[in-house]
Amino acid sequence: MPEDTVRGWLRRAAGRAGQVREVFTRLAAELSADPVPLEPAGSPLADALVAVAAAAAAATARWPELFMVSPWEIVSAVTNATLLAPVMAARAFNASSSRETASLTATLDAPASAGIPEEDRQ
């Protein structure tokens, strides 16, 4: 992996940490039966990771059949695999909709490369 690629991912992750925290904090609250406030983790990027972990925990608590899905597969499904892309495309999500549940489950069941242009796959 070229160093410039990794540096770009780290810059993007740091630059959109607030957006990631917001999206996944909201998702965690929507999915959780009893949401709790997330404690600050010391940096914007650490706060974003705490929110991702909270959303993943809330998803697996709500849908136990997803327990084998990693937090990063959930992130990929919610962001349409664009977390580290030049533009992140988080999708709206209605946790009370069975159609959304089916959509999330179908997205999680899709191959990891689904929706990624051939030239961007590595």
Describe the model:
The structure is a single chain. The chain is mostly helical and 122 residues long. It has one domain. It is built from five helices and no strands. It is globular and about 40 Å long. The protein starts with a helix and ends in a 13-residue tail after the last helix.
Average pLDDT metric:
76
Query: Which value, in Å, is the CA radius of gyration?
Result: 15 Å
Order of helices and strands: HHHHH
From the helix content, strand content and strand pairing, which structural class follows? mainly alpha
Distance between the termini: 9 Å
Q: What portion of the residues fall into strands of 2 or more residues?
A: under 5%
Characterize the overall form: globular
Number of helices: 5
| Overall domain count | 1
Q: Which stretches are low in confidence, meaning pLDDT under 50 for 5 or more residues running?
A: 100-122
| Proportion in helices | 40-55%
Query: The biggest beta sheet, please?
Result: none
Q: In total, how many beta strands? A: 0
Secondary structure topology:
Elements: H1 3-15, H2 17-31, H3 44-62, H4 71-78, H5 98-109
Quick tags:
122 residues; mainly alpha; 5 helices
What does this entry show, briefly?
With 122 residues, this protein is mainly alpha-helical. It has one domain.
